[in-house]
Amino acid sequence: MPKLTAIALNATLKSSGEEASSTDKMIDLLAQKLSAHDVELTETIRLADHDIKPGVTSDEGEGDAWPAILRRILAADILIFGTPIWLGQMSSVAKRALERMDAFLSDTDDKGRMPSYGKVAVLAIVGNEDGAHSITASALQALNDTGWTIPAASACYWVGEAMQSKDFKDFDETPEKVDQTAGMVADNAAHLATILKGHPYPGHED
């Protein structure tokens, strides 16, 4: 069976030229755990670097960066969807990416399967305030609505104390519980992606 691949979307509000991103560090942790299952992270796309137009189609016209990003996402078996917490919610950049995936509901094949069918999605969440559980609920619901398959234990997160300044990127060593959770997420994602690659969803015929 061909080797599994993963791709990551980093929905930090920082562009690549700015300071390091804690979301990148969480994505890298999951990528490291996935590599133990021979899953290759092909790339991490920092969404803030690209002009992703608002909308709910796969192509919003001239200058829209989403179509090229979408092709790269759909070429992989596993999506790591990474977002920081802002105001207790996922970032605005993360919401825009999910809104653009709404097009999957109509971009189906002749068996009614969305382009994301047979592909696995997991979450990487970081922040210095509460919000990880509500983001997990809303993001996984959106991903499931748009055809992604969600494994058991599908979110790895870290949240610091309220009103404090320490970020996830500031840790020299990953906190033990976060490391254990990342391993579980990777185990389940790789297992499920392997099954789906060999046994795709049958779809349905009218």
From TrEMBL:
Domain NADPH-dependent FMN reductase-like: 16-148
Coiled coil: none
Pfam families linked to this entry: FMN_red
UniProt xrefs under InterPro entries: Flavoprotein-like_sf, FMN_Rdtase-like_dom
Gene3D superfamilies per record: 3.40.50.360
GO molecular function: oxidoreductase activity
Protein's UniProt name: NADPH-dependent FMN reductase-like domain-containing protein
